[in-house]
Amino acid sequence: VQLQASGGGMVQAGGSLRLSCEASGFTLDSYAIGWFRQASGKEREGVSCISISGSDTYYAESVKGRFTNSRDNAKNTVYLQMNSLRNEDTAVYYCAALTIGVLNDATCLGIGWQDWYSYWGQGTLVTVSS
């Protein structure tokens, strides 16, 4: 039972990628889903989250206006569309399900709330080059 992020790769600055988060062994439609990233030598940080229905989304300030989080519960998949990519977006991206508590800005993006998320997969590497 886990989530698997895919769709990463190498892209030039200013380019776009779309990440997918697919569930294995369970259905996504009962969980809010978070996207997180970890750059080399840095702590893992919250990037964006989406509510169960998809009606509420949260974004880190660094990605607002560039990234779009969406979900298709019929396909059991959550997507992260990343546009206008920057060098500083280079990281391993993970998705995880919020299994404890309620989704809000704090539980999505705040430090210390990642323990409330489960079903972490291996992540997908995004490399943005100049």
How would you describe this protein?
With 130 residues, the chain is mostly beta strands. Helix content is 4%, strand content 47%. It contains one helix and eleven strands, in the order E-E-E-E-E-E-E-E-E-H-E-E. The chain has one helix at 105-109; strands at 2-6, 9-12, 17-24, 32-38, 45-50, 57-59, 67-72, 77-82, 91-98, 117-118, 124-129. A hairpin with a 4-residue loop joins strand 7 and strand 8. The radius of gyration is 13 Å and the shape is globular. The model has no long low-confidence stretch (mean pLDDT 95).
Helix count, DSSP H or I runs of 4 or more residues: 1
Query: Distance between termini?
Result: 37 Å
Reported for the largest beta sheet, the result is: 7 strands, mixed
Counted beta strands: 11
The share of residues in extended strands comes to over 45%
> What general form does the structure show?
globular
Secondary-structure element sequence? EEEEEEEEEHEE
Please give the share of residues in helix. under 10%
Features:
mainly beta; 130 residues; globular; single chain
Brief digest:
With 130 residues, the protein is mainly beta.
Helix and strand arrangement:
Elements (H helix, E strand, L loop, with lengths): L1 E5 L2 E4 L4 E8 L7 E7 L6 E6 L6 E3 L7 E6 L4 E6 L8 E8 L6 H5 L7 E2 L5 E6 L1
Parallel strand pairs: 2-11
Antiparallel strand pairs: 1-3, 3-8, 4-5, 4-9, 5-6, 7-8, 9-10, 9-11
